[in-house]
Amino acid sequence: MTEEIVIAGFGGQGVLSMGQILCYSGVMEDKEVSWMPSYGPEMRGGTANCIAIISDEKISSPILTRFDTVIALNQPSLDKFEKSAKTGGLLIYEASTIINLPTRTDIDILPIEASNEAAKMNNIKIMNMIILGAFLKKKPIIKFESALKGLEKVLPERYHHLIPLNKQAFEKGMELAEKFQVTV
Asked: What CA–CA distance (Å, rounded) separates 146 from 92?
């Protein structure tokens, strides 16, 4: 099993953290991992993306142009990376903020209104964990428990009191993903 993922959005949306969580989780499960961030000079509001690869085998290169899964958290990221999903791949996007919907018919598409759900949970910062939960429901490349341990590694200790809320966000994402018939 090898899963090649690109996660993209604005800085401050937790794009890099999502990739780190996946990779830390993969390491805990004795998988090979690669995490390659890319972001502009702006701290928040600029664009950011990361490539995360989780594999049972050695990873030959972290540099990719085609992905098994594309996760887009905003319109510019969807516009840029939709075409990068491999045929038969998965595109997950944050549907609350997307105006121009994806047009591909050769991939599975999973719209998740994560921002709206995060607002209902009174913390917009957990939007990325809702998306990550939806991804792990559709592609369980790592165990839920490992993802929570990965979150604990990535989240600074001063925010560990938010781990239960993040766990709820993961679960909400999984619940939302169940509503869609996506074959992977």
From this structure: 21
